[in-house]
């Protein structure tokens, strides 16, 4: 990959695609890991005399200018992490944005408004990419976690101007390559979280790559429902029942063991400290929802991890952000970190929620590698080509004067 660290950026305006898609609540950033990790990339460029224009998306505003998804609150957090003012520009294309990026002093840093306020972003629209490209002289992709998206700011723009990989993207690729090209077996994958439909394809593929597939979170509910269990008021996807059954059949055919919850913690409401109790996974009462896996399941998962040599983890086991429904996620995270620190497990975790959960358990340092990428991390595990990385590789092989 063409590495921006090998380029003289002095006096240049550098456009960086970052992934500052961080968890938010009530207009405030609730986990700043991605921002903190990104700050050194900016500092390395400003220290070398560049001015920096930051592009990011936040959430999925679907092409609408919805203020709930404004990137404005991120500018303040990034300023704190950098120890330097980051100016927010309330648009990402057009006159106002161009005026701001056209008048940058050396070392100045601006953050543009959410890219996904325009439909051209996810449509990978070349004209939209052109409108973005006028903000700088060079383009850097430092968003490994968006590299699985063929969007205007991750793919089309890289075909329009000198394009490089940023240091965080390089670090992610190097770490994952090292850990995944020939993993120590047995390999266990733990997949949880609530983005059920987006991860079902990933699960299908994992059945042929890993020895044990542990399924938790809202996704497990879809599997339990597919087995015919009553789900009460739990979150699940009835339309995905057939896919879930197909995944179980594929796993059985390939000798991949699937671990599903055998007990769950149910509550009357999706709320912290909601009235709760543990029930068997096939006996969820009508007016209760599953918010975490139970203690028996937690013990089974920990036992499965202690048999594995490599663990890939994406997605929490329960609603970890609500007390006390993070118990299983935190217990499993602690067990995995202990085994890793004892040199008995290579543990690789990825995903915004997963990172927040590991931080909550206080064990991030104990893991072998923690990636802030979610979907990109999983697609990489599947062995899929990531469009945001492919375009950089392709460009580097063509003749171009930077
Ligand atoms: C992520 O959080 O995984 C990335 O920011 C990508 O977000 P997306 O799934 O909305 O494209």
TrEMBL record:
<comment type="subunit">
    <text>Monomer.</text>
</comment>
<dbReference type="InterPro" id="IPR001576">
    <property type="entry name" value="Phosphoglycerate_kinase"/>
</dbReference>
<keyword id="KW-0963">Cytoplasm</keyword>
<keyword id="KW-0418">Kinase</keyword>
<comment type="pathway">
    <text>Carbohydrate degradation; glycolysis; pyruvate from D-glyceraldehyde 3-phosphate: step 2/5.</text>
</comment>
<dbReference type="GO" id="GO:0004618">
    <property type="term" value="F:phosphoglycerate kinase activity"/>
</dbReference>
<keyword id="KW-0808">Transferase</keyword>
<keyword id="KW-0324">Glycolysis</keyword>
<feature type="binding site">
    <location>
        <begin position="351"/>
        <end position="354"/>
    </location>
    <ligand>
        <name>ATP</name>
    </ligand>
</feature>
<comment type="similarity">
    <text>Belongs to the phosphoglycerate kinase family.</text>
</comment>
<feature type="binding site">
    <location>
        <begin position="57"/>
        <end position="60"/>
    </location>
    <ligand>
        <name>substrate</name>
    </ligand>
</feature>
<feature type="binding site">
    <location>
        <position position="321"/>
    </location>
    <ligand>
        <name>ATP</name>
    </ligand>
</feature>
<feature type="binding site">
    <location>
        <position position="199"/>
    </location>
    <ligand>
        <name>ATP</name>
    </ligand>
</feature>
<feature type="binding site">
    <location>
        <position position="149"/>
    </location>
    <ligand>
        <name>substrate</name>
    </ligand>
</feature>
<dbReference type="InterPro" id="IPR015911">
    <property type="entry name" value="Phosphoglycerate_kinase_CS"/>
</dbReference>
<dbReference type="InterPro" id="IPR036043">
    <property type="entry name" value="Phosphoglycerate_kinase_sf"/>
</dbReference>
<dbReference type="Pfam" id="PF00162">
    <property type="entry name" value="PGK"/>
</dbReference>
<keyword id="KW-0547">Nucleotide-binding</keyword>
<dbReference type="InterPro" id="IPR015824">
    <property type="entry name" value="Phosphoglycerate_kinase_N"/>
</dbReference>
<keyword id="KW-0067">ATP-binding</keyword>
<protein>
    <recommendedName>
        <fullName>Phosphoglycerate kinase</fullName>
        <ecNumber>2.7.2.3</ecNumber>
    </recommendedName>
</protein>
<feature type="binding site">
    <location>
        <position position="116"/>
    </location>
    <ligand>
        <name>substrate</name>
    </ligand>
</feature>
<feature type="binding site">
    <location>
        <begin position="19"/>
        <end position="21"/>
    </location>
    <ligand>
        <name>substrate</name>
    </ligand>
</feature>
<feature type="binding site">
    <location>
        <position position="34"/>
    </location>
    <ligand>
        <name>substrate</name>
    </ligand>
</feature>
